Write a sequence for this structure.
């Protein structure tokens, strides 16, 4: 089956925008009526729901942010009584107060439907075995995908963040055809499989990776696909939006955002709209969520949006690969640096291994940035000079792209962190 | 020049960050596995070091060190048995320089054979160097049991 819901997935852009406009009006009215948070917010902006006459009118509304969720912890932004909530998820809160997301039964249905469409677009369906290696529990990744996989009639292997050797042996024994996890964890699985003398490409049935929860580059995708003999699809979604929701399709050229449930804007640094296809910050308005509606929620992710019909036949707009996060950005000597830029440079250099780490520190008044990469067996030369040349060559390519100096340091293999969650790619030691 | 297939010696090359204990932990693995180190040398960049070993069982060393998580690789070098007498090193280095071959690094140990030393040699053109030295009548070793 090529589409989960061919009718909806192939509505014309015009029909989709009309549907969005109709739903937007209702979302804003409901929020105004049932959420004290939004009522106050709209009132402060001198806005009444009747002001929404077209989609563009959304631009009159103020933005919301993660800080609003934190400030109203735990459930101050909810728009339904507690009796309608059937589930909670809670973000880890590693960067501050945790954020709580609630779901009505209908919210879970919409989430599951979105994933059913997405997983189908990745070529999955009945007969597939999908190993969900995202964490289960308070994190949305595990349970979200779990429901989506069941919905499409595939078998789910709910292993969660299990030990890596177990992931590999079950993958082999149960004939896993798809795995959902972070890209860095899948690379790690590949390494461990190699040390167990298992060739994933030839000795397992794995053919699809559903990879996300951290930014990754096209070059990483190329490596994963080549090393493991699979197709690797990007998945996007945040806990505030429900959890993982959207993936690429077989064209692997952008992530389809289901426009009947989510309205996406891309804005510039000043909050104004950018031209279609231009880069900016992702802003989300949920069109179907009941428990925790988001209106103009600034996601912090940097991407672009295109409405052009995809070669897969789906008409829903696509966001392009996430280029980084507004708050992931490191400023080194006044220059904005995104870890994804560094990853992209490194993965183009065949001598560089799969893992890296960025360490920013201060030497006197100056910022210094070091990029650590692991030495690989094939690059390990018996000549010190050859290795120093490699460091210099990588440093030069980084400088050409980043416009700031980075010192490249070779470290022993297996010493940089590999994690099953978001990888710790940046260490900032600066005392400011 | 006539091409001679010359014997090469396997050297273990180990990458180590410049911090205490790296040589100790690597040699511990070798000692636990009954591997004898015949000669070694360390070159460093200030931040990392390259430790080069000639051992009695190169394949086992490589396997053991790799399994223990070390960054190791195998490198071909020349192992040359030379007389432990004045002028021997001069003869070798002159032959190489006359043929425009650069020595990248070298180290040595005394052989079990009396009055012989083993010179370990890495050169800009290893094949050419090995061929030349074989033609000059030097004995190249393939292993160092």
């Amino acid at each position: 089956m090529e589409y989960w819901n061919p009718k909806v997935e192939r509505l014309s852009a015009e029909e989709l925008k009309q549907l969005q406009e109709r739903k937007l009006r209702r979302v804003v009215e409901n929020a105004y009526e049932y959420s004290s948070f939004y009522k106050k917010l709209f009132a402060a902006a001198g806005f009444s729901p009747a002001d929404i006459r077209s989609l563009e009118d959304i631009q009159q509304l103020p933005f919301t942010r993660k800080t609003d969720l934190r400030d109203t912890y735990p459930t101050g932004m909810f728009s339904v009584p507690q009796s309608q909530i059937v589930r909670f998820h809670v973000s880890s809160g590693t960067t501050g107060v945790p954020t709580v997301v609630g779901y009505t039964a209908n919210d879970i249905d919409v989430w599951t439907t979105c994933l059913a469409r997405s997983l189908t677009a990745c070529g999955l369906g009945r007969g597939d075995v999908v190993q969900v290696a995202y964490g289960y529990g308070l994190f949305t990744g595990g349970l979200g995908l779990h429901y989506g996989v069941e919905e499409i009639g595939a078998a789910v292997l709910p292993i969660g963040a299990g030990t890596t050797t177990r992931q590999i042996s079950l993958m082999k024994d149960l004939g896993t055809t798809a795995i959902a996890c972070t890209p860095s964890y899948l690379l790690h699985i590949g390494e461990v499989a190699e040390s167990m003398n298992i060739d994933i490409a030839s000795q397992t049935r794995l053919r699809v990776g559903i990879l996300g929860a951290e930014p990754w580059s096209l070059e990483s995708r190329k490596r994963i696909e080549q090393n493991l003999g699979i197709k690797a699809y990007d998945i996007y979604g945040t806990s505030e939006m429900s959890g993982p929701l959207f993936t690429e399709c077989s064209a692997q050229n952008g992530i389809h955002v289901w426009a009947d449930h989510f309205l996406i804007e891309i804005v510039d640094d000043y909050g104004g709209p950018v031209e279609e296809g231009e880069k900016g910050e992702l802003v989300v308005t949920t069109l179907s969520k009941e428990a925790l509606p988001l209106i103009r929620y600034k996601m912090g992710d940097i991407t672009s949006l295109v409405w052009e019909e995809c070669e897969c036949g789906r008409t829903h707009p696509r966001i392009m690969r996430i280029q980084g996060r507004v708050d992931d950005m490191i400023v080194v000597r006044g220059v904005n640096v995104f870890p994804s830029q560094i990853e992209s440079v490194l993965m183009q250099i065949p001598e560089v291994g799969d893992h890296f780490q960025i360490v920013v520190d201060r030497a006197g008044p100056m910022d210094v940035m070091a990029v650590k990469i692991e030495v690989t067996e094939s690059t390990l030369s018996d000549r010190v000079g050859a290795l120093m040349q490699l460091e210099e060559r990588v440093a030069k390519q980084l400088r050409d792209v980043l416009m700031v100096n980075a010192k490249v340091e070779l470290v022993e293999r297996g010493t940089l962190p590999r994690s099953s969650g978001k990888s710790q790619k940046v260490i900032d030691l600066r005392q400011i | 020049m006539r091409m001679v297939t010359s014997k090469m010696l396997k050297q273990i090359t180990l990458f180590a960050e410049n911090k205490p204990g790296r040589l100790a932990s690597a040699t511990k693995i070798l000692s636990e596995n009954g591997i004898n180190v015949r000669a070694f040398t360390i070159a460093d960049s200030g931040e990392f070091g390259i430790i080069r070993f000639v051992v009695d069982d190169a394949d086992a060393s490589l396997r053991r060190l790799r399994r223990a998580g070390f960054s190791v690789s195998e490198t071909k070098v020349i192992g040359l048995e030379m007389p432990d007498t004045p002028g021997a090193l001069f003869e070798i280095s002159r032959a190489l320089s006359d043929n425009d071959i650069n020595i990248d690094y070298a180290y040595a140990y005394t052989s079990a054979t009396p009055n012989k030393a083993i010179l370990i040699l890495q050169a800009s053109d290893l094949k050419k160097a090995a061929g030349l030295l074989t033609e000059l009548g030097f004995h190249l070793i393939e292993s160092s049991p």
Notes: Residues 330-428 of chain A form a domain with the GMP Synthetase; Chain A, domain 3 fold (CATH 3.30.300.30).
